[in-house]
Amino acid sequence: xxxxxxxxxxxxxxxxxxxxxxxxxxxxxxxxxxxxxxxxxxxxxxxxxxxxxxxxxxxxxxxxxxxxxxxxxxxxxxxxxxxxxxxxxxxxxxxxxxxxxxxxxxxxxxxxxxxxxxxxxxxxxxxxxxxxxxxxxxxxxxxxxxxxxxxxxxxxxxxxxxxxxxxxxxxxxxxxxxxxxxxxxxxxxxxxxxxxxxxxxxxxxxxxxxxxxxxxxxxxxxxxxxxxx
Amino acid sequence: xxxxxxxxxxxxxxxxxxxxxxxxxxxxxxxxxxxxxxxxxxxxxxxxxxxxxxxxxxxxxxxxxxxxxxxxxxxxxxxxxxxxxxxxxxxxxxxxxxxxxxxxxxxxxxxxxxxxxxxxxxxxxxxxxxxxxxxxxxxxxxxxxxxxxxxxxxxxxxxxxxxxxxxxxxxxxxxxxxxxxxxxxxxxxxxxxxxxxxxxxxxxxxxxxxxxxxxxxxxxxxxxxxxxxxxxxxxxxxxxxxxxxxxxxxxxxxxxxxxxxxxxxxxxxxxxxxxxxxxxxxxxxxxxxxxxxxxxxxxxxxxxxxxxxxxxxxxxxxxxxxxxxxxxxxxxxxxxxxxxxxxxxxxxxxxxxxxxxxxxxxxxxxxxxxxxxxxxxxxxxxxxxxxxxxxxxxxxxxxxxxxxxxxxxxxxxxxxxx
Lengths: 229, 418
Description:
Number of domains of chain A: 1
Largest sheet of chain A: 6 strands, mixed
Strand order of the largest sheet of chain A: 6-7-8-3-9-10
Mean pLDDT of chain B: 89
CATH architecture of chain A: 3-Layer(aba) Sandwich
Helix content of chain B: 40-55%
Oligomer: heterodimer
Order of helices and strands of chain A: EEEHEEHEHHHEHEHEE
CATH topology of chain A: Rossmann fold
C-alpha cells in the first residue's frame, strides 16, 4: 500500500471571472521512504502540488490518500490535525518564529502533538538539534544563526515529530552552494536513518544529484516520472 | 495551550515601542474610567447625602395635600397625628418599626428680614436640635458660636445669609412671617451660631430655630411639616416600606398622610439613576475608543506575520488555536494597560478624594434646590478599581477578537505565498 496516492487531481484557481488551471489531472503514487524531487519551470504547478499533498489546500477534482486516509474530503480542522501528526514542512525562507530560540522552535512542533512529558520533549528537541549539527546553538534565536543553520533548525522542526512525510519547497534556494550541500546531506541522512519520506520542489541541481526519483511537471501535468539510483 | 500563552507573551517583545503605545492607550482609557467613575460617584454620593439630609430623609412622611403645595411651604397641611393629637405620638410609633433608627421632625416656613430698605427672603427650619445633630451632624458646620438649644429664643444662620442681612453672631434679628392663620407677625431672636457650608441652601437661605419656638410663633403647637424616617442604611431604606405601608394603612382616617422614598419621588434623583446607567455606556465607549489603537496594532501584526501564521497553520495549528494566540496577545496588552490605568487612575482619584474638585464657577446660577455641592470629592473605592480593570480587560479582549479572527481565517496556502 503506497504512503501517498493522487488520482486525477485537478486544481483550478478562480481569478475574477477567469479560471486558471494549476493542476490538470495528476496521478501519482509515493512509497514510504522515498527521496523524490518535483521539478519543472515556474508556473508548472510544483507548489500547488506540494500544497495538495501537504493538506494546505484541497483539490477541485480528484482524490488524495495519505497513509490510507482520503484527505481530499477532510474538513479544515481535520486537515490541520493531519498536518500536525503526519506532515513536516521545510520552507525556502525557513519561517522560524523569531522570538523563539532554536530549541524553542523545535520544541513548539513537539508540544503541538502533546502526550509527552516535559523531560521527553526536552530530550527529543535537543537530540534532533544535535542530529542536524546544531549542538551548542540551542539557545540562539534565528537572528543569531546563519542561513544554513536556520534551515537546519527548520529541518529539525519538521522531523522532530516523526512525520510520515516531509515536504520541502525550494529548501536550498536561499543558501550558498556549500551550505546547500550541507543541508541536503543532512536531509539524506534523516531519510536514511529514520526512513522518513521526502518530497522536494526544486530547481537546485545539487538536490537532483541526491534524489532517487524525479517528477517533472509541465503545465500542470506530470511530463515524466523517473527513478534514479 | 501553555506554550501558546508563552509565545503570545514573547511576541509582545517584537516591537516594544508599539506594544508600549498600545498599553498606554488602554491605560489612558482606564485612567479616564477610574477617575470619571470616582468623580460621578463623588458627585452622586454628596448630592444623595445632601438630598437625604436636607430634603428627603430615607423616607419622608408628609400630609398628602402638602405634597401638592410644598413649594409654598404651606402651614395648612401639617403632620399632627391621625386624630390631630400632635406629631409626637406618630413619631414615637414610627420609631417602634424594626429597622427605623431615628425620626426627625422639621417645621419649615417662609420668613423675611428687613435690611437697608429691602426685605431678604429666607426659610426657617424649626428643629429638634438633638435629633438634627444626630442625623445631619450640622454642629460640625458651625464655625462660630453654637447650635440652638431646645425651647430657647435663638437662631443659627448661614454665613451668606448673615452677610445679606448685615448681622453677626451675638446680634438680634427680627423675622417677619405669616402664622398658620395667615396673620402677619414679627418675632425677634438672638443669633447664637454661624454655619459655613458650600451648600447654598445652608449657607445663604435658611436659619435654624428650636421646634417649640417655631410652633409657638406660627401658632401650630405639636405640628410639624414633615417627619424624616432614618434607617441604618439608606441603600436599604426600601426594606422597611412594607411596615410603613402597613402603619399608614392602619391609621384612621387613612389617606391623610403620604410617604416618599428618598429615591423614588424626586425627579432629580430619578434622573441621576438613569444617568448612572448612561455613564456605564460612556465608560465602555471610552475603552472602545482606546481599542481602536489596539485593533490597529493587532491588524498590523497580523499583516506582518501572515507568513508566520501560514507556517503555524502548516505545523498543524488549528484556526481556534491561532485565534487564541492573537487574542492572548491582545489580552496581555489589555491586562497590562488596564493594570497600569487602574493604578494611576486610583492614585489620581485618591488625591482628588482629599483635595476635592471645585465646580463653583460652573454652578453659578443653579437652583439651590438641586443640593449640589460646588466642591465635591471623588470616591476612592476598591470596587471602582476592580470594575475598571475587569471592564478594560473584557472590552479589550472582545475587541482583539476582530484581528484575531482575521488571523485565524487566513488560508494557510495563501498566507505562505505572501
